[in-house]
Amino acid sequence: MRNKTTIETTDDLLALRGPDGVVRVDGDLIINCSVPRSVGNQVSGLYVRGYLHVRGNLDVRGYLVVRGYLVVRSDLDVGGYLEVGGYLVVGGYL
Questions:
Q1: Residue range 76-94: mean pLDDT, rounded
Q2: CA distances from 22 to 57, 76, 87, 92 (A)
Q3: What is the pTM of this model?
Q4: Taking CA 34 as the corner, what is the angle to CA 70 and CA 11, rounded to the nearest 5 degrees?
Q5: Are 64 and 78 in contact (CB under 8 A)?
């Protein structure tokens, strides 16, 4: 069984940042809120070893690496490179 991390608020997401501003999750990540540009500008990268499921918008200033699949129910905006090991589903703009 893989580890699963669930984020309910943007403060929860920001609390996961390392000293370099990168959020690293060793398993699956579920974000149950939108991550607007004002928060995404504070994340220099997002690295998820499992799958990533976002129930709203996702805006990340830096790179986004997901080893599993990536599902974003609304818009996805990535300022750096995007790498997805599985399938990609975006319900809004990419």
A1: 95
A2: 18, 18, 23, 25
A3: 0.93
A4: 110
A5: yes
CB 18 within 8 A of CB 42: no
Residue 67, burial from CB neighbour count under 10 angstroms (0-12, 13-18, 19+): middle
Helices (H), the chain: 10-15, 37-40
Task: Return d(Cα 45, Cα 22) in angstroms, integer.
Answer: 4
* Angle made by CA atoms 87, 16, 1, in degrees to the nearest 5: 50
Q: What is the rounded distance in angstroms from the CA atom of residue 27 to the CA atom of residue 51? A: 7
| Total residues found in the chain within this entry | 94
Residue pair 7/25 in contact by the 8 Å Cβ criterion: no
Tokens of residue 62, six digits: 């830096």
Say how far apart CA 26 and CA 61 lie, in whole Å. 21
Each residue of 42-65: pLDDT tens digit? 999 999 999 999 999 999 999 999
